[in-house]
Design goal:
By secondary structure, the chain is mainly β. Helices cover about 10% and strands about 35% of the residues.
Length: about 850
């Protein structure tokens, strides 16, 4: 199980993008094609450019005039072209002052191009061999000194110097933009030549050490930039200043910076890379130069204890074994060790059987070691998009940032975030809360469950289509024998184990039952039944209503935990008998979690609207909530009835019983009786204004009104005098409430107000750790954030130390830097939580709860985000 380390992501904000290093955009139609690296290099150097629609159109033919421009720009002679733009054209069909005139004149003056009987034919397409000839001449070769006849003289010379490497084209064909890009890119690192008076060939040199003598080859690219000697990439991302780390040193990058060939910078961490710089010494492109044979996936051995030394390294400190002693390696003196892309101080101690990747130099010595720790088998749910990064959300609520530098693969192939689908099984390498690598698997087995079992190690097994699969992890509970015969889609991880499953057809009413009677005899004698032709005793009789099948059933069970007037999961044990798992243990003697039993005693409804209902506890209502009516026959309980109900049947004063999930969403609302009460619903919003209307001389008849911004609409609310006279500021988060009892009850006016004053604005301050290898070496404690998102999928927050949940009724506003107010959504709450503070590009947050609690989580009524 060997893995490679990838990617360090960037950070950003949807509301106000932060300053982060950016990479140049590769034209969309060359991504993943052989021509990609060439186009990226030439674009970075300014030799070619794409079209406004983000494409390069590599298959389009190119004209002779366009090629003249490319060769002049590539050789650093554009200034000459500008000077010659208005001079008399060298060819009679080249117009004076046209966009191409200067380039053609300069190319002719340099001897790069030749015409046809005094004409150049600027708008004609150009043949492959003609492009080759022009580039060969640009290197300094002259046709008359090349052996052979045209065009083989230039083709043979081009082949000799290596211009055709990776180029798929043939003599006599029209050259395309892609072919020209590849040929020009191959020419960049070739040495320039010249001839003396006798026609002898010589190579041009440049003085690099200042002694007045040429000591290095002068390359085609020399006027635009330079290829640096191969170096080791020592950081998987640009730093905050946009610098790249090469050999441990930070080097500036150009505005147009590429990692060529479709690679992520993070994928090349520890790799040998070739480096292309512009004439200002800024890095404009890096290319992976690490040979595949110099990348070794391995597992550390127990005697791999420490690498490096606090004193000058000695060979013994740098030699180690891997793969149970099968191989021995020696590290370079400046070896780098990275754990999830973070460089570690030497000496560094490995553990046994640790997955590592060794990056070797040309001599076979280890120049870098990558250590990856993984979060495995997460079930993908959805993506929340920001302007400069996104978040992947798992079905268990786990979330992680990804961005343009995060490497994503699906079934072993490079992929995009948009390629991921719900229920894909995903593994992550994470640094902080940012994904370095996302490795997704989409392997789905569909069929009827034929058998359930156990692998003897506490893991459930399922037989589908004659094949048995083992369940990995606890993302979903283990299926029981009651599920046999049901068709499921099983989502497997890369090891072929079940991580998640779901029925292939939706079931509005799942396997739940309302228990009408449970005849548990006091003397435990029970009932006798015939089982496989044998009379057995000790059974109990249960009459229940199956919500899945809409059927009343009489059954027998050995589980005495059933009670009349309850809603319970309808499950059976391996023998097909009803069971509640109360006090049960599995085959490994491990306790099985008890099923939740919901009492149908009933509680009166005190408040209800389209999103929630309060009956002792407040529950959330959504489209998945199932409404039922239970008609209890007190004389003959087994003759009780269950019928379908609707949300309209849940009124104030009605008696209901509710079964909810852990975020307070009502799964089942069972109506037991009806009734009604009168009270104004609580109102919340942002303060706009207040007004007084005097209707008579009697002050008691005055109408006091407060206007609030409610979900972007202005709404008016009648209030009493005391509430009206309170002090309000523009955009205060206001909550208006009506008295249920007392003097103000039933008068149609709001009798009280609350204004949210608490603000979350303190950024999270992580603990300071001097040495990541020794986390105990902390010099400052961590400071909790005023606002943090604890479960993105469940929309749970911690605000000033209290838990909140955002529901469909929550109003979310943003106050922009220009003072205007707009409604927004939960995504911007995530952004604000990531960037709390009062400085530029930061956000502070006010929050008012509704007073409703869902399983200990306060419902957020109004959230106001203020941008700075």
């Amino acid at each position: 199980m060997k893995k490679s380390l990838l990617s360090l992501a960037l950070a950003g904000s949807m509301l106000s993008a932060l300053a982060v290093p950016a990479f140049a955009a590769t034209p969309s139609d060359v991504v993943g094609k052989p021509v990609q690296s060439a186009v990226e290099q030439l674009t970075a150097l300014g030799i070619v450019q794409g079209y406004a629609d983000g494409t390069f159109k590599p298959d389009n033919t190119i004209t002779r005039a366009e090629l003249a421009k490319i060769v002049i720009v590539a050789t650093g002679n554009e200034s000459s072209a500008n000077l010659m733009a208005n001079t008399a054209p060298a060819f009679k069909d080249v117009k004076k002052g046209a966009w191409y005139t200067g380039y053609i004149n300069a190319a002719a003056a340099k001897g790069f191009i030749q015409g046809y009987n005094g004409k150049f034919r600027p708008n004609d397409t150009i043949k492959f061999e003609e492009v080759t000839a022009i580039l060969v001449r640009a290197l300094g070769y002259q046709d008359k000194y090349l052996s052979g006849s045209w065009p083989y003289n230039v083709l043979l010379q081009a082949d000799e110097v290596g211009l055709f490497e990776g180029v798929d084209a043939a003599n006599g064909t029209n050259a395309t933009r892609g072919v020209v890009a590849e040929l020009t890119s191959n020419t960049l690192d070739k040495q320039l030549v010249s001839y003396n008076a006798d026609g002898d060939l010589g190579y041009l040199l440049v003085d690099t050490d200042g002694d007045g003598k040429g000591d290095a080859a002068k390359l085609f690219i020399s006027k635009l930039g330079a290829f640096e000697p191969a170096n080791v990439l020592t950081a998987g991302a640009l730093n905050s200043s946009g610098q790249i780390s090469l050999g441990g040193k930070s080097v500036a990058t150009a505005k147009e910076f590429f990692v060529t060939g479709g690679k992520k910078l993070s994928e090349l961490l520890g790799h040998t890379v070739s480096v292309l710089k512009n004439k200002n010494g800024e890095v404009i492109a890096v290319t992976d130069a690490q040979e595949a044979g110099k990348i070794v996936n391995a597992s550390t051995d127990v005697d791999t204890i420490t690498l490096g030394s606090t004193t000058p390294a000695v060979p013994a400190d740098l030699t180690f074994k891997v793969n149970n002693g099968a191989a021995t390696y020696t590290a370079t003196a400046d070896v780098k060790v990275f754990v999830n892309s973070v460089e570690q101080n030497l000496p560094y101690t490995f553990t046994n059987d640790q997955d590592v990747q060794l990056l070797l130099n040309s001599k076979g010595n280890v120049q870098a070691i990558l250590v990856s720790t993984w979060k495995s088998d997460n079930v993908f749910k959805e993506v929340v998009s920001y302007s400069t990064y996104s978040r992947i959300i798992g079905k268990d609520g786990y979330s992680v940032k990804v961005d343009a530098n995060t490497a994503i693969t699906l079934d072993g192939k490079a992929a995009k975030l948009a390629d991921l689908k719900e229920n894909d099984i995903v593994n992550y390498v994470v640094n902080g809360d940012t994904a370095l690598q996302v490795v997704a698997t989409r392997n789905v087995v569909t069929g009827k469950l034929q058998a359930v079992g156990n692998d003897g190690k506490g893991n459930a097994t399922y037989t589908v289509n004659g094949t048995t699969y083992t369940q990995a992890g606890t993302q979903v509970s283990a299926l029981t024998a009651s599920a046999i015969g049901t068709e499921y889609a099983f989502n497997l991880n890369k090891d072929g184990k079940v991580v998640y499953y779901a029925t292939t057809t939706a079931t509005a009413a799942a396997n739940y039952a309302i228990i009408f009677t449970a005849d548990n005899k006091a003397d435990h004698s029970g009932y006798s039944v015939i089982n496989n032709g044998v009379v057995e005793g000790g059974y109990y009789k249960v009459v229940y209503y199956s919500l899945k099948d809409n059927t009343k059933v009489t059954a027998y069970t050995k589980d005495e935990d059933y009670t009349a007037g309850t809603l319970v999961p309808l499950k059976t044990d391996s023998n097909g008998l009803l069971t509640l798992n109360v006090g049960d243990k599995d085959s490994n003697n491990v306790a099985i979690a008890d099923d939740v039993v919901t009492s149908l005693t009933g509680t009166a409804v005190t408040a209800v609207d389209s999103t929630k209902v309060t009956a002792g506890t407040t529950y959330r209502l959504d489209s998945s909530t199932v409404y039922l009516k239970l008609g209890v026959n007190a004389t003959t309980p087994a003759d009780s009835t269950v019928t379908a109900a609707t949300a309209a049947d849940v009124t104030k004063g009605a008696t209901i019983a509710v079964r909810s999930n852990d975020t307070g969403v009502a799964q089942y609302v069972i109506v037991l009786g009806s009734g009604s009460v009168d009270q104004l619903a609580q109102a919340q919003g942002l303060f706009i204004s207040k007004s007084l209307t005097a209707t008579t001389t009697n002050e008691a008849d005055n109408v006091y009104t407060i206007k609030l911004n409610v979900n972007g609409e202005t709404k008016s609310f009648n209030v009493d005098k005391a509430t009206y006279l309170a002090t309000y500021a523009d955009n205060d988060v206001v909550t208006l409430t009506d008295a249920a009892t007392g003097a103000g009850a039933g008068d149609g006016k709001y009798d009280a107000k609350a204004i949210a004053t608490a603000v979350a604005k303190t950024p999270y301050k992580p603990a300071v750790v001097d040495d990541p290898a020794t986390p105990a070496d902390e010099t400052a404690p961590a400071v909790p954030a005023d606002l943090s998102v604890t479960d993105i999928s469940g929309k749970k927050l911690n605000f000033l130390g209290a838990p909140y949940v955002v529901t469909g009724a929550t109003q979310i506003f943003i106050k922009k830097t220009d003072g205007t107010i707009a409604t927004t959504n939960f995504t911007d709450v995530l952004v604000a939580a990531d960037n709390l503070g009062v400085g530029s590009g930061k956000y502070e947050v006010k929050l008012a709860g509704t007073g409703t609690s869902y399983n200990g989580n306060n419902e957020a009524g109004v959230i106001l985000i203020t941008a700075h």
